[in-house]
Amino acid sequence: MGPDPNFLIPPDLIQALDRSRHAVVMTGSGTSAESGIPTFRNAQTGLWAKYRPEDLATPEAFERDPQLVWEWYAWRRELVGAAEPNPGHIAIAELNDLLPHLTLITQNVDGLHQRAGSPRVIEFHGNLMRSRCTAGHPADEIDKIDNTGETPPRCRQCGAMLRPDVVWFGEAIPAVALATALKAVEDCDILLAIGTSAVVQPAAGLAMQAKQHGALLVEVNPEPTPLTRDVDFVLTGSSGRIMPELVNALRSRQDHA
């Protein structure tokens, strides 16, 4: 006999997912670590080791030395551009075909969920692969920026400096992303927190808001987090290992229904 495809996944969880009306998936940096992308604080290596992230990821840092900040983000974009979605990203994308309604919220800025095929992603902290005008013009994809040789480059519409389209320390989560996420967690009947430390607010509070509205909570993480004691199902392991198992078990149940 081959291995039981459900050996990691409680049957009660698969049943709950199969019956769910609206599932929310919330992902953090652990989801992308398996693609070789360092977590935010682990990105301080080599030439950047002498800097704290706070020295490079604040509006004040950009005002003080915009070239330094832009170059750090350019280095990080190279890391992201060389990475590929891992089995966890792909499995999360496949859930869209197995569930009637799925909302994906990510704290990651690498765009790997989109590259894996997830059609709608709420980006809490923005996206490394976009820039935006410091005077407020809409975001552009990095590869569409006019290269005038300046660092940072300039906005094509007004000439103001461009900046990475990410949320820096001291900045608010984009209002539309936050409102959409809050609406989703208040409506969902199951929430999966995957690869997130459950520390950074306001994302860390979304799971508990979902629970207060009656949702089942599922945690997928190699290590315990502050959320662990409050969840209904703890799946200990990486998302790249756990999520394909979960998707296979759910697909198997639906195929034999």
Describe this structure as you would to a colleague.
This protein is of the alpha/beta class and 257 residues long. The protein has 2 domains: 10-36 and 85-125 and 173-257, TPP-binding domain (Rossmann fold); 38-82 and 129-166, 2-Layer Sandwich (SIR2/SIRT2 'Small Domain'). Helices cover 36% and strands 17% of the residues. It is built from 9 helices and 9 strands. The strands form 2 sheets. Strands 3-2-1-7-8-9 form a 6-stranded parallel β-sheet, sandwiched between helices. It has a 3-stranded antiparallel β-sheet with strand order 5-4-6, covered by helices on one side. A hairpin with a 6-residue loop joins strand 4 (126-133) and strand 5. Helix 5 (87-98) runs parallel beside helix 9 and helix 7 runs parallel beside helix 8. The chain is elongated. It starts with 10 loop residues before the first helix and ends with a helix. Residues 1-6 have low confidence and may be disordered.
Which radius of gyration do the C-alpha atoms yield? 19 Å
Strand-pairing-aware structural class: alpha/beta
Strand content is 15-25%
Dominant shape: elongated
Total number of distinct structural domains = 2
The first-to-last residue Cα distance is 22 Å
Q: What fold name stands as the CATH topology of the largest domain?
A: Rossmann fold
CATH superfamily of the largest domain: TPP-binding domain
At CATH's second level, what is the architecture of the largest domain? Answer: 3-Layer(aba) Sandwich
Number of strands: 9
Strand order of the largest sheet: 3-2-1-7-8-9
Helical proportion, percent range? 25-40%
Provide the CATH top-level class of the largest domain: Alpha Beta
Order of helices and strands: HEHHHHEHEEEEHEHEEH
Uncertain segments: 1-6
The main β sheet shows up as: 6 strands, parallel
Tally of helical segments: 9
Look at the structure and give the mean pLDDT: 88
